[in-house]
Design a protein that fits this description.
Number of strands: 2
Largest sheet: 2 strands, antiparallel
Shape: elongated
Order of helices and strands: EEHH
Structural class: mainly alpha
Number of helices: 2
Helix content: 55-70%
Strand content: 5-15%
Strand order of the largest sheet: 1-2
Radius of gyration: 17 Å
Distance between the termini: 22 Å
């Protein structure tokens, strides 16, 4: 069984425990899911009225921006 004290070299060139590594994987999966949702949202927006399309596309852009910010915070080690 793994313990948090077991060192593991992550792709971010930092030594982290198994729990930290799992958290990074979950965050990456979450970021992927958010990007997929934004992509689906853009496809859905194509069938909406111009006003609703603009609103939907703005929301998708915001999801992408927030996902990028989360990724940057994770890389800096500010989110765990």
């Amino acid at each position: 069984m793994f313990h948090d004290s077991v060192p593991y070299k992550s792709t971010l060139d930092i030594d982290v425990g198994i729990t930290d590594t799992l958290m990074l994987l979950v965050l990456c999966a979450g970021q992927t899911a958010a990007r997929l949702m934004a992509s689906e949202g853009r496809q859905i927006a194509e069938g909406l009225s111009p006003a609703k399309r603009g609103e939907m596309l703005q929301l998708c852009d915001e999801v992408d921006m927030l996902t990028d910010q989360l990724g940057n915070l994770c890389k800096k080690g500010l989110v765990s």
